[in-house]
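Chapter review: from sequence to fold.
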Amino acid sequence: MPWNRSAQVTLLLLSAGCARGAVVHWDGTQPVEADTIALAQPAFLDAADADPVRAGTAVGHVLFSGGYVTEEHPAGQQNVSREARLDASGAYAEHAAQWVSSEVRAALVERGEVRDVQLTPLPSPPLRRDLRGSYAELGRDNQPLPRFALEPVALAELPGDVDIVVVPWVVRWYSHNGGWFLGQTWGSAAGARARVFLVAYDASTGQPSAWSDLESVLVSPRDFNPNTARTEDLLLEAEQALTDAVPARLPVR
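The token string follows.
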């Protein structure tokens, strides 16, 4: 049974130097047991989005400028930065893929025998489900609205001679200066987010057996236009929090 199908969150506070910092466990199921595990190359959720910053699937550095504007949307009038440029997407994607492969593999080898596989074609992306209602950081958060939960879909290609296939999805991986993500009324200071969706598939059927959706969230208490070094510090701190959280939240036990 799912731990939390309504996508409530578990918060693990980071350092006292952050105004807001947490690892968010969006949703998941009880982990499954496996002796042999195939680990697929990381896949990215942003490939299907024309504007990943507004879709909440950005990979790169988000540079806001020009203040904010108010736009009409189905949910009503929404504030958003006038300009939002996504820089260094390639470098961030390469780094995120390396991080996910390394950290998830290091945690999985404690559970069973792991071998790396390349799935072709890539697995179908998980389904998104928009979340309704208010939440604690609404208006000042460093993600766009609506928030969303994820659910995996069946896997087409099945590697042989393993019990479980683990597919890591990079949902988003970004740093940003101060600005307005879509729908956040007062805007956010500089920060970073890194979210991964880990799915364990039954290798005999291709059906998802278990999954875990983790995100590291960090917003600086004082930085609005950080320099490159400070931006890297924010992202590094977010990544370290995610590193610390992954072993306890794997979909395989």
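Two observations follow directly from the output. The first helix runs from residue 52 to 55. The chain has one domain: 20-249.
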